[in-house]
Amino acid sequence: MNRDGIDIAGVDGGRVVLTRQQIDGLDSRVRHPLLYAGDEAWDDAILIWNGMMARAPALVIQPASAREVAAAVNFAREHGLLLSIKGGGHHIAGTSIAEHGLALDMSRMRAIVVDPDAKLAHVGPGCLLKDVDQATQAHGLATVLGFISEVGVAGLTLGGGLGYLTRRFGWTVDNLQQVEIVTADGRIRAASREQNADLFWALRGAGANLGVVTRFTFRLHEVGPTVYGGLIAWPFERAEEILQAYRTITARAPRELAVWLNLIRAPAAPFVPERWQGERVCAMAVCYSGDLADADAALAPIRALGDPVVDLLCEQPYTQVQSYLDDGEPKGLHYYWKTEYFAELSDGLLATLRALAAECPIPQGQIGTLHLGGALNEHDGNDGAVGNRDARYAFGVIGIWAPDEPDADTFPQWVREAGQRIRPFATGGSYVNFQTEDEAQDRIRAAYGDNFDRIVGVKRKYDPTNLFRMNRNIRAGT
Ligand SMILES: Cc1cc2nc3c(=O)[nH]c(=O)nc-3n(C[C@H](O)[C@H](O)[C@H](O)COP(=O)(O)OP(=O)(O)OC[C@H]3O[C@@H](n4cnc5c(N)ncnc54)[C@H](O)[C@@H]3O)c2cc1C
Question: By CB count within 10 A, which of 148, 162, 264, 389 is most buried?
Answer without folding.
Answer: 162
